[in-house]
Amino acid sequence: METKIYEGRVLSLSVYDVKVEGxxxxxxxxxxRGAAAVLAFDEKKRIILVRxxxxxxxxxxxxxxxxxxxKEEPLRCAxxxxxxxxxxxxxxxxxxxxYYPSIGYNTEVIHCFVAxxxxxxxxxxxxxxxxxxxxxxxxxxxxxxxxxxEIQDSKTICAVLAxxxxxxx
Length: 169
What we know:
This protein is 21% helix and 43% strand. The protein has two domains: 1-32, no CATH class; 33-166, Nucleoside Triphosphate Pyrophosphohydrolase. By secondary structure, it is of the alpha+beta class. The strands form four sheets. A four-stranded mixed beta sheet has the order 7-4-10-9, sandwiched between helices. Strands 1-2-3 form a three-stranded antiparallel beta sheet, with no helix packed on it. The chain is built from three helices and twelve strands. The mean pLDDT is 95.
């Protein structure tokens, strides 16, 4: 049985009373539409990142990403978010990795893509509550920042390491 506790713009919270292997258990679950994230490179083969304010953590360095709109496909979201947050448009998006960032209590799934043929086409088109700037770093610098704990965003870490596992960075 589901009891809805909260319904917000981006997520909702429900409490479930269910049976698992004959045992009654209670689970609190955050429902989220999911997100798309993009590992993109500029003309000089630098990774295009955004330095974004993420309350309550302050500014973080991450790959461009965003929540799926209602009924939006992850691929469409990836193209949209890359252009809105960086001003770059990709010719092609290739699926890289899909994962659950908080599998124990959250339905959010993040679909990571690799953008190819990215070109700067516009200024940023940010939502009213987005506070960010574009940062471009070499792949080696990004990897060293991940190892040093300077990049802590899970979608960025997952995308960069998944890409590095099958490509030479």
